[in-house]
């Protein structure tokens, strides 16, 4: 098997960093994921990471709060994940830069597209925090946006508790059927809940391939980079 991609955006949901309790940060889980990131980095892949924040806060989870304020809290949560991931990667000698879409000069660089690309070219792993910087968006949309901006070859959507896209929720329906391949338009037409429609449309309009796979086995990150057929492949 050979290297399939030169530059990737890896989207890690907050849940993927949370271990089994679903909340907060599980350091062992982050360590395991970091080792896999190091492996693909050592293979020569340019790695940009978009982190979610659902392990701390989701904007839509509090109906009693102003939505924009709640979303900003969610974006702050992603920054905690970004810093934890940076720490874990640097502990195993992977050089990283965190770029935040909301300026926080003391802890991260601001997001600057050309600078992010330069970091990648120099072999640094770039971690994008604070989503798009705008309320009413998601970190899946951030992954689509950043992938388009930095001209990534693919987005890896690493999911916890599920290993691809199904026609119905496999946790509720044991006969749910997994798709090996899909087109973006199918996700929209069938209402498959793998990504929100903003993220899906952005990927579709910009022709960015996506691989959805399970992160419960962190080896999957390396396997996908090497072209092993796992998860669901989605194309324009
Ligand atoms: N968020 C936002 N704008 C963005 C990205 C994220 O407002 O561009 C907020 C939103 O409230 C979201 C939260 O940050 O619920 C955490 O992100 P997300 O739910 O995408 O994280 P994940 O589900 O991937 O852990």
TrEMBL record:
<keyword id="KW-0021">Allosteric enzyme</keyword>
<feature type="region of interest" description="Involved in allosteric activation by GTP">
    <location>
        <begin position="19"/>
        <end position="24"/>
    </location>
</feature>
<comment type="similarity">
    <text>Belongs to the UMP kinase family.</text>
</comment>
<feature type="binding site">
    <location>
        <position position="58"/>
    </location>
    <ligand>
        <name>ATP</name>
    </ligand>
</feature>
<comment type="subunit">
    <text>Homohexamer.</text>
</comment>
<feature type="binding site">
    <location>
        <position position="166"/>
    </location>
    <ligand>
        <name>ATP</name>
    </ligand>
</feature>
<dbReference type="GO" id="GO:0044210">
    <property type="term" value="P:'de novo' CTP biosynthetic process"/>
</dbReference>
<feature type="binding site">
    <location>
        <begin position="11"/>
        <end position="14"/>
    </location>
    <ligand>
        <name>ATP</name>
    </ligand>
</feature>
<dbReference type="InterPro" id="IPR036393">
    <property type="entry name" value="AceGlu_kinase-like_sf"/>
</dbReference>
<feature type="binding site">
    <location>
        <position position="71"/>
    </location>
    <ligand>
        <name>UMP</name>
    </ligand>
</feature>
<comment type="function">
    <text>Catalyzes the reversible phosphorylation of UMP to UDP.</text>
</comment>
<dbReference type="GO" id="GO:0005737">
    <property type="term" value="C:cytoplasm"/>
</dbReference>
<keyword id="KW-0665">Pyrimidine biosynthesis</keyword>
<dbReference type="InterPro" id="IPR011817">
    <property type="entry name" value="Uridylate_kinase"/>
</dbReference>
<keyword id="KW-0963">Cytoplasm</keyword>
<dbReference type="GO" id="GO:0006225">
    <property type="term" value="P:UDP biosynthetic process"/>
</dbReference>
<feature type="binding site">
    <location>
        <position position="53"/>
    </location>
    <ligand>
        <name>UMP</name>
    </ligand>
</feature>
<dbReference type="GO" id="GO:0005524">
    <property type="term" value="F:ATP binding"/>
</dbReference>
<feature type="binding site">
    <location>
        <position position="54"/>
    </location>
    <ligand>
        <name>ATP</name>
    </ligand>
</feature>
<keyword id="KW-0808">Transferase</keyword>
<feature type="domain" description="Aspartate/glutamate/uridylate kinase">
    <location>
        <begin position="6"/>
        <end position="213"/>
    </location>
</feature>
<keyword id="KW-0067">ATP-binding</keyword>
<keyword id="KW-0547">Nucleotide-binding</keyword>
<protein>
    <recommendedName>
        <fullName>Uridylate kinase</fullName>
        <ecNumber>2.7.4.22</ecNumber>
    </recommendedName>
</protein>
<dbReference type="InterPro" id="IPR001048">
    <property type="entry name" value="Asp/Glu/Uridylate_kinase"/>
</dbReference>
<dbReference type="GO" id="GO:0033862">
    <property type="term" value="F:UMP kinase activity"/>
</dbReference>
<dbReference type="InterPro" id="IPR015963">
    <property type="entry name" value="Uridylate_kinase_bac"/>
</dbReference>
<comment type="pathway">
    <text>Pyrimidine metabolism; CTP biosynthesis via de novo pathway; UDP from UMP (UMPK route): step 1/1.</text>
</comment>
<keyword id="KW-0418">Kinase</keyword>
<feature type="binding site">
    <location>
        <position position="169"/>
    </location>
    <ligand>
        <name>ATP</name>
    </ligand>
</feature>
<feature type="binding site">
    <location>
        <begin position="132"/>
        <end position="139"/>
    </location>
    <ligand>
        <name>UMP</name>
    </ligand>
</feature>
<dbReference type="Pfam" id="PF00696">
    <property type="entry name" value="AA_kinase"/>
</dbReference>
